[in-house]
Specification:
14 strands; elongated; disordered N terminus; 286 residues; 28% strand; alpha+beta
């Protein structure tokens, strides 16, 4: 386990799915997806998911799902699967019958992915339903159960009112991750006290009094890689933060891996989005 000197509050934030792909109108098929997001990965439109070195076809238990919602779920699960380096197939003692006979005569869940330590860092909303498979001869199919797709529908419906701030947070996250995941950029930032301090957001406590604390934490960050997160990694608090009373802050807990230790997983330190900018989130321990 790596030694990092961050101090973070491990009390859970209530998860809130941001409406990353949604416009305001509510259509019978649940959602209209923003075209630029749907097109961001053409592979998702082909209904398959990449897990480690395997390309696995996707089948949906709820065949009434719109094309847009299928793309949303596939894209999000692809982000979840992106940091999986290896897996094994575990055969179920008793296959689970699906509600419908799906394409390619997929009728049962017969196997599930064994992901080892990586599984415990999956978002709780999908942990039990991720990695269910049907094996037909030499072909395996990745099953999106109706329970899992309904979880996405509920999250998106529940948080439609927050879409503007959450969309803004989501759209700028990749740029921020591209910065903090590059040790060469961090080594450059650490030379400048102003730039270094601007990387941190202090939630519920005062700023550090010594510049050396910032430098030590930037040094620790150079060993870590923040993975692009699932929508379930986002949460929102209105009126939080002593520095900016009344400000709406989006929090995000991506899975974090190590550049040197393949068995290292964590979700701390988390990230915070405030007034149009992303930060490393620091809070006092309870």
């Amino acid at each position: 386990m790596m030694n990092c000197c961050f101090c973070f509050n491990r009390q859970g934030l209530n998860p809130i799915a941001f409406v990353l792909l949604i416009v305001a109108c509510h259509l019978p098929d649940h959602f209209t997806v923003m075209a630029q997001e749907v097109e961001r990965e053409s592979k998702h439109r082909e209904n398959y998911i990449q897990i480690a070195a395997e390309t696995i076809p996707i089948r949906y238990e709820d065949e009434s799902l719109s094309r847009q919602l299928r793309d949303l779920i596939a894209a999000d699960l692809a982000d979840v699967a992106a940091y999986v380096q290896k897996f094994e197939l575990e055969e179920l003692k008793e296959p689970v019958r699906l509600a419908l006979n799906l394409e390619d005569r997929v009728t049962h869940v017969t196997h599930r992915l064994r992901l080892g330590k990586a599984l415990e860092w999956y978002p709780a909303a999908i942990e039990q339903s991720f990695g269910l498979l049907c094996k037909k001869g030499d072909v395996i199919y990745f099953i999106i159960t109706k329970s899992l797709s309904n979880t996405y529908i509920r999250f998106l419906d529940d948080n439609r009112e927050n879409q503007e701030v959450l969309l803004g947070a989501r759209s700028s996250l990749k740029t921020f991750l591209d910065t903090i995941n590059r040790p060469d950029l961090l080594r450059d930032i650490i030379k400048d006290e102003t730039r270094t301090k601007k990387l941190f957001y202090f939630h519920g406590g005062g700023r550090w009094t010594h510049f050396s604390y910032y430098q030590e934490n930037i040094a620790a960050l150079q060993q870590l890689t923040y993975r692009y997160p699932s929508i379930f990694a986002f949460s929102l608090q209105i009126g939080s933060g002593k520095e900016e009373p009344g400000n709406t802050v989006v929090f995000c807990r991506p899975v974090i891996t190590s550049k040197t230790d393949p068995d290292y997983y964590d979700t701390y330190p988390p990230l915070a989005y405030s007034n149009g900018n992303w930060y490393i989130c620091v809070s006092n321990l309870p």
